[in-house]
Amino acid sequence: MKNKKCPNCRKVINNQDKRQKYCNRKCSKEFNKGKNHHNWKGGIKHRPDGYLRNSQTDQYIHRETMEEYLGRKLENWEHIYHINGDNSDNRIENLQILTNSAHRILEVKKQRRGKDGKFRR
Ligand SMILES: [Zn+2]
User: Fold this and answer.
1) How far is the CA of 33 from the CAs of 8, 27, 36, 39, in angstroms?
2) Quick one: the chain helix, strand, coil %, rounded to 5?
3) How many percent of the chain have pLDDT more than 90?
4) Which domain holds residue 68?
C-alpha cells in the first residue's frame, strides 16, 4: 500500500483511514483556504484605485484573468481596460487589452464624463 501524503505539508500520513486526507486539522484548514479551495475568493486586496490585487501573487486580478484566458504572460505595454468602467469587474468579457497609449486616451475620455455619466462638451 502506498503511503498517503498530506497535500499541505507533504508529511506521510500513517493513519490508513481513507477519509483522512491531511495529517491534521490545521493542515486541512490551511490547504483549503488557499486557491485549491473550489470556491476560492480569498487573498484579494481592494486597491484605492478600485482595482483588485491577488495578495498571494501580488498581481492585479484583471491581468491574471487575461493571462489565463490568453495562455501567456502579458507584456508590460499591454494594459487591461475595464470596458464598463468598473475596475473591480474582472469578468473576461469586461476586459480588453490596450496598448499603453490607447489606454491613456480612454482614461482621459473617462475623466471628461460628468457625474451623470455623460461626456462633457
Ligand atoms: Zn500536513
Assistant:
1) 11, 10, 7, 9
2) 30, 20, 50
3) 27
4) 44-110
pLDDT of residue 101: 74
CA of residue 9 to ligand 1 center, whole Å = 4
Assess whether 95 and 69 both reside in one domain: yes
Assess whether pLDDT exceeds 80 at residue 6: yes
Residue 84: its pLDDT value, please? Answer: 94
Q: Measured between alpha carbons, how far is 52 from 58 in angstroms, rounded to an integer?
A: 10
C-alpha closest to that of 73 among 85, 60, 84, 82: 60
Residue 79 and residue 31 share a domain: no
Which residues are close to ligand 1, an ion, with C-beta < 5 A? 6, 8-9, 23, 27
> For residue 13, how far is its CA from the centre of ligand 1 (angstroms)?
8
User: Which residue is associated with the grid cell 506521510?
Assistant: 12
